[in-house]
Amino acid sequence: AICRHGCKYGECMGPNKCKCFPGFTGKTCNQDLNECGLKPRPCEHRCMNTHGSYKCYCLNGYMLIDGTCTSSRSCAMVNCQYGCEEVKGEIQCLCPSGGLQLGPNGRTCIDIDECSTGQAVCSYNRRCVNTFGSYYCKCQVGYELKYASSRYDCVDVNECVTNTHRCNLHAECLNTEGSFKCKCKQGYRGNGFDCA
């Protein structure tokens, strides 16, 4: 079976037919499925979509025990933002992802900037973009995401061909990896952006 555009989070089952792994959707299985929007809803109270999956949380005053929200007077007193759990008789507030941490008050969750703490892992030609509770890797400026050789990769944008350079009318555009250079044509002098 050959899938011309590939199956990012799935398997190629027939000519251009992808079978997506659980939690993913789309023709090439490249989109995250928002399980929280499904009917019937997968969670009893609160649902948070995550990449390829989801997490359930309970309203204040309830605790997630074996997948169901159970009333908990002690949990109600703690007043957690995303519900809580009981660990060895102690009530602990929860955060929905590893990219969040409990704030100083022990009840609300604050974002961890994985990009500035160095926890994020992005390949050399990608830059880190922080999001609430997570991060993603985006192509560096001068590169664009393209599908080639059965995978997605950041490839150099040829600014000279796409005409996105700022070279002077009397200058030549020279493409470089991730950028471009301008050189004044013969008979002209300047830095390539200004030629006289």
Automatic annotation (TrEMBL):
Q: Which GO terms describe its molecular function?
A: calcium ion binding
* InterPro entries assigned: EGF, EGF-like_Ca-bd_dom, EGF-type_Asp/Asn_hydroxyl_site, EGF_Ca-bd_CS, Growth_fac_rcpt_cys_sf, NELL2-like_EGF, Nephronectin_domain, NOTCH1_EGF-like
Protein name, please?
A: EGFL6 protein
Q: Which domain of life is it from?
A: Eukaryota
Q: Which UniProt keywords apply?
A: Disulfide bond, EGF-like domain, Repeat, Signal
Tagged with keyword Aminoacyl-tRNA synthetase: no
Which positions fall inside the EGF-like domain? 32-70, 111-149, 156-194
PROSITE patterns hit by this protein: ASX_HYDROXYL (PS00010), EGF_2 (PS01186), EGF_3 (PS50026), EGF_CA (PS01187)
